Amino acid sequence: MIPATVSQLVADKFQQAQASESVVFKKLDAKNVKDPKSGMRYSVSLVPSLSEKPEFGQTAEGDDPLANSEPELTVLEDLDGSGDLKLVLNKYPVTENHSLLITNKFKNQLDALSPEELTTAYRLVCKMDNEDENKRHLVIYNSGPASGSSQFHKHLQLVEIPRNFSPFQDVLTNGKDHFLPNLKQEPLQDGKVSFAHFVLPLPEDADEVNEDLLAMCYFSLLQRTLTFFQDWLNETPDLVKSYNLLMTKNWICLVPRSAIKAKTLNVGFNALGYAGILLIKDQESFDKVIENPAVVNELLGECGFPNTEGVKPNEYNY
Ligand code: AMP
């Protein structure tokens, strides 16, 4: 069982880690902006401490910082009594209480999530949302070289959704019943945004969300995402499979990815960017995004694939 006070355990550990400087965290500014063209809203933070985070390929071969997590960062060695996952603070957080669910046995970040891993992450989100009704949580999984991932040891991440901010997937799924996609019914996709993404609403009652249901949601979206890569292989033969998974208590979303960083501005994205949560390391790029939020939809499109809303699926997709 995940402890009922898990949110408090994370918050206490984060405070201690900040006091002992075990986490590297400096947030200088944060603003919510709206792109008048697409109507997309973004939560934009200036976090220069992210410059110290090792990027993809920068961790020395044979070095596995997530396996050897620091005691000052480790919240629970065994998150739910199964021994599968530990809960550890992110050393380079994007926000307070940013934590990681890391497999205790080594697994590869390129591998699909297991139904057990997905379900534990979902249960953790529900527990944390219930513990403090003013907070909502988002789980992400960055998989593949263009996904914005930086560590090869399998891990999911858990962040608090900024207060007064709602990812666009909330609006997209609002009032919609849960369904599994098939040839007749594609996953939900918001036509306003530039990039392809596949979203399924989850049942409103969390007790109805069991391991089988989550596995069916994830694998059907994963199959949709993988066939998407097949469709693009003719045009870009050296394309490597990369995607982001995002999940709240209410919905699950997959985003196929083509690049980590935009060419036109010094901003990179992992799954958080595709919820509209932008983390920017330098003041100049931060100012540019605040001045012209419409640029973000272009950048997200550059690092993903074109939106396919309204395009009929074919027999390969499911
Ligand atoms: P990703 O970038 O999606 O692969 O997530 C890996 C996360 O691990 C990043 O957000 C890093 O900030 C975090 N990280 C890197 N080194 C450590 C470490 N030694 N302890 C805890 N977290 C770390």
From TrEMBL:
The active site is at H155. It holds the Pfam family Ap4A_phos_N. SUPFAM superfamilies: HIT-like (SSF54197). GO terms for biological process: nucleotide metabolic process. Residues 5-162 form the Ap4A phosphorylase 1/2 N-terminal domain. GO terms for molecular function: ATP binding; ATP:ADP adenylyltransferase activity. Residues 192-306 form the ATP adenylyltransferase C-terminal domain. InterPro entries: Ap4A_phos1/2, Ap4A_phos1/2-like, Ap4A_phos1/2_N, ATP_adenylylTrfase_C, HIT-like_sf. Transmembrane segments: none annotated. PANTHER family: AP-4-A PHOSPHORYLASE II (PTHR38420), PUTATIVE (AFU_ORTHOLOGUE AFUA_5G14690)-RELATED (PTHR38420:SF1). This is Bifunctional AP-4-A phosphorylase/ADP sulfurylase. It comes from Maudiozyma humilis. The lineage of its organism: Eukaryota, Fungi, Dikarya, Ascomycota, Saccharomycotina.
